[in-house]
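User: Fold this; tokens only.

Assistant: Input:
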Amino acid sequence: MTAVTDQDHTEHADHAGDTVTDKDQHDNSRHGEGPSEEDRADKRTDAKGGTRARVEGDDGRADATEAADSWDDGLIARRVAEGEAAEQAAALETRSHGAQPVTPLAYDGVLRSRLEALRELIGLSRTRLDSRTLAEAGRVLDEASTRRRLSGQHTVVAIAGATGSGKSQLFNALAGVPISETGVRRPTTAAPIACSWSDGAATLIERLGIPPRLRRRPLQNGDADTELSGLVLVDLPDHDSAAVKHREHVDRILALVDAVIWVVDPEKYADAVLHERYLRPMAGHAEVMFVVLNQIDRLPGEATEQVLDDLRRLLDEDGIALGEHGEPGATVLSLSALTGDGVPELREMLGQFVTERGAPARRISADVDAAAVGLWPVYATRRRTGLSEEARDEFAARLADAVGATAAGEAAERAWARNANRACGTPWLRLWRWYQDRTEPVTGRLPLRAQADEEATARQRVEHAVRTLADRASAGLPAPWAQAVREAAVRGSQGLPEALDELAARAGRLPGRPPRPGWWPAAVLAQAAMTLLQVVGGLWLLGQIIGFMAPNLGVPVLLMVTGIVGGPLIEWSCRMAARGPARRYGTEAERRLREAAAGCGRARVLDPVAAELLRYREVREQYGKVTGVGATAR
């Protein structure tokens, strides 16, 4: 490991010696033309007598010889020597002569079901939620699908930190060779550098957007290679760099790696940018997170433990679970990349972490959790939702009132009674009623105005019924789904008053003439007999008056009195007997109109609203599967 001066712990400032310049990134497009980077590195190493490092795809051997320091007086001379040593010792990744089979990542059944539920959830929600709301969930699905197709034998771990935290020193210490440049002036690391401990990780590194020129292999060490086999370590630029492009590199790669090592120093471990922008939002990723307190060689006595305790307190406030006492969570430890104190412990932990091969799945699972938390406001509700039978019945009753079902029933009842009275009444009373109907004047415009007022009132009642139903159906729903329910109700209400008017015209009156009870012919015959008695008695008396018949007042008077009294008596009896059938006839007419109005309202309003509620229950069920609790909406 290359020694660096204490000045490496100072704050970053811009300098011309960045690890990667814009020209280097531009030259990457020409990779493969002319002599390879490995050949040029080998030639430079041989010419200077420096250390020969291992090249991926070769025989796996490396010559390790000490490089002679020919120019070492002054800071600039030391920086040039360090840069040459890093260039000579860092091994560049090349394509293997024989393609290594890559075993794709396999998710367990629980994670697969959660991803399927998330995919179904997005599909059901695309027409109800805007694309920005579903963007993060869609990104998680895409990344999960992409990561599953890549190697499951490798774990990609990023080293992230602020300026002056010493993350590049730690990167070099873990690799055992100066790969990432360290220096006094900031920023030193301008682009991410990847170091792979085994073959087959090329596609994983390509996914991170790291060009082949910035891919390295560690110094050959049998025990270390075995211990960290499958590890892909990525050194990131400073997350608080003044260069926007550096921060973009950090944000992009942090969303793709399987795990992350956060390197903090005793001076900036409580930095608000680190905690508010990164640690707190990534609290759910604690199981794939290491928090390393570097530069403990600068802390005297028991100050290290005090700083560690304060760091744990801050992490707890960020909501990050700490992996202590066997519980899953973030690993917190202290070390000094400069002196090597604590580096073997971190190497051992990384070895166990990589050997488990579980970090990629845990990272995807944490991403699904984070996406579910972000979708909570648009899916979750803490109260019972839907339409109760009471709300449905009330809606049907309001529509029936709007079409005048009760009034129509009463009118049908009166019509039946009037028909009975006319059929069973005395001829003289029927003649008088006919005369009144012929002589009564027309009422003019008053019925038309009353009809227009009734239509306006009926339309208002229908609109009020629809609004009330929509409010009850959308109560407690998240805003997007409540809006969808209300829109479905409004669409269904268009044309509803006109449809109800047509139904009232068709169903308000039963087909044909009102039915007659069985006693009706007998009543009509009895009323005819009473009329006949009156006629016979009257003619008899008239014959006696004109002297055509012998005087006998008793019999004709009795006949006439019987007819005169019996006719109204029969009419009154028929009226009393007709109340029951008339009421049943009116009730039937009202029932038919109520059912017709309810059916119209159900087809136009209730069914679309119920369909929206059913869709919400489906997405709620899928959301429960995504969160892992299997809750279903009610």
